[in-house]
Design a protein that fits this description.
The protein has 6 helices and 7 strands, in the order βαβαβαβαββααβ. It is of the alpha/beta class and about 210 residues long. α1 packs across α5, α2 packs antiparallel against α5 and α3 crosses α4.
């Protein structure tokens, strides 16, 4: 029996920066939409200061729109905020209020955000404030292994070739991030293979259970 039924559910992805959500649960997003879920995506920083000089400053905004469209997220379900990269902790109350506003607008069923063991300062802020804002919802933490000294593989979501291929295609939209090792198709597929092997499947994405409400 599949108790993780996402049909007709509202699922909210919280991404500290554009691309975090795709990296952490991109293939699962494709599966959820395929199953009939309504998926929303909120990115809190477009990291304009970190955009390579050969690109326009708003390039990451352009890229997240393209990437989420590839995953199947409607444009009206995408929220992009312009908080300064690496300084989200200085505006955590404002971010909390923004999250509460999203909660009141959407009333989502399931929240995905960075793992509670992620040590990036922006990721920590979104996770901590996300837990505060959505403490009465199911919350799953996604892994970004280059930011995790440890990770609890509490929940596995089975994915197939189509799901992982769409994740790879979506991440390819991030031209500004193409030189990062973790953006390579080989890495994305190999991590999904490792996680799949742990549950005797070809591919999977894994998550930390922060809050589980059935």
């Amino acid at each position: 029996m599949n108790i993780f039924n996402t049909k007709n559910k509202k699922i909210l992805i919280l991404a500290p920066h554009t691309d975090d959500g795709e990296l952490g649960c991109g293939a699962s997003i494709v599966r959820f939409i395929e199953e009939g879920a309504d998926v929303y995506y909120a990115a809190f920083s477009t990291a304009d200061e970190s955009v390579p000089h050969e690109f326009p400053k708003d390039q990451l905004t352009i890229e997240v729109k393209q990437a989420t469209r590839i995953l199947g997220i409607p444009s009206e379900n995408l929220f992009v905020f312009q908080y300064q990269v690496r300084k989200l902790n200085f505006v955590r109350q404002e971010i909390l209020e923004q999250l509460i506003a999203i909660r009141q607008k959407l009333n989502p069923d399931i929240i995905f955000l960075p793992s509670s063991r992620d040590f990036h300062q922006d990721h920590q802020t979104i996770t901590q404030e996300g837990i505060r804002a959505f403490k009465f919802n199911t919350i799953l933490g996604y892994e970004l292994i280059w930011n995790n000294l440890s990770f609890s593989t509490d929940c596995f979501i089975k994915i197939n070739e189509f799901h992982i291929s769409k994740k790879i295609e979506a991440l390819a939209a991030y031209q500004t991030q193409a030189t990062k090792n973790y953006m390579s198709p080989e890495f994305i597929r190999s991590l999904a293979t490792v996680r799949g092997t742990q549950i005797v499947e070809k591919y999977a994405e894994t998550f930390e259970v922060i809050r589980w409400i059935i």
